[in-house]
Amino acid sequence: MDIIIVGAGTVGFSLAEYFYNLQYHISIIEQDKSLCEQIKRKLDILVVMGKGSSPAILEAAGIKSADMLIAVTPDDETNLLACNFAMQNGVEKRIARLKSDMYTTAFCVDLKKLGVTNVIEPEREVAKKILQYVELPGVIETANFQSGNIYLRDYRVTENMPIANKTLAEVKQMSAPSPILIVAIIRDEKSLPPIGSQRLSPGDKIVAIMPKESFKDFRLLIGSRSAKLKKIVISGESLIAINLAKTLKPLGEQILLIDPDHDHGNMAATILDGVQVFHGDCTNSEILQDLHIEHADCFIAAGKDSEDNIMSCLMAKNTGADMVIALRNDDRYIGLFDSLGIDHVVNPQEITANMIIENIQIAPIGTCLKLKTAAIEILRLKAGRRSFVTGKSLRELDTSFKKSIIVGAIVREDKVIIPYLFDRETAGDPFISVDRAGINSVLRDPLKKFSRSYF
Known about the structure:
CATH architecture of the largest domain: 3-Layer(aba) Sandwich
Number of helices: 17
Distance between the termini: 18 Å
């Protein structure tokens, strides 16, 4: 497959590296000379310096023979124009990253006619990710798969939880009829086998997979009833901050947006109904005191400057805010930030790249999540007709996988199947069928070896 990527920033480079490792033919277009040189040193791919909206540049990158174009520059117009030229040249799949929502909310804009087959809106996706943390306070890690129909939640067991000191078989009975599967138990930094007789102790970290419909019952299992937060404070002069205020409004009795840019704040105030908008800089301790940040259930730093986001979160936590979340386009020092008290660091670039990969769905290996709490990877895969797993029951696969791999969910014809590991001695084990079922697997084996052996 021939793929052209327009834009070699963090997202573009991540995509190029991902598809390069899958041995696809990649061309990348970038205006910045230094970025072009960096990519040439790291990847053996065609790099064309120029603007992605230029027909000549697109032709030099191989637009006439391309199967897919992914436009992820910071400029929406460039991304749309690149997709339009790709459509005119017969490129089958054309993906545009759009920062502004004016193209997706305006009734008169038909993006398909402009040439876009798939739209990625980073600001909305980041807001959805942060929503997962806010709606379940205390969650360690979280992810949604299969267009939000499968939930993964990583939580620590406490003494007062209904599931504390219960076996997994008992937990299954407590959650019935809602399917909820605990696929990993981490105790003293070691992973325990998630079998029916395994008992959950206070202090254990558990990784649970469930269909969306089971989330309410999962909350009951961990003793976390749904309730509005009293006060949510969001800081930042970005579109992400505005989208967060809209998305989190149903979760908070009081939503405050603190905008350091006066003009941007005025614009935000005109479009945010029921949200209090103030002008100020949350790296200023006096501003935090004026906001009574010590009463905030959640403080989210969503400004354009990653370092300011980290600093304002540290100050808010020190002042007394309960949960703090920072946006940062860099994964460095995440462990350090955890130790300093920042509850969650969200990387918008990583979320964008993963969303594009999930939307494309051309590779057998899908979105990958590496859990920080243990040496465990979560993968979404597709079983092809010639895959080793196709036609096998989970009981058969247990023997082949040597218990180093757990199938946590199977998606077949848009239906989510949650296989209970401790039911495998009975008849009726789910089979991996030849209809290219999607699979969410919890892995402890090296990724490449696993994919070559079974898919």
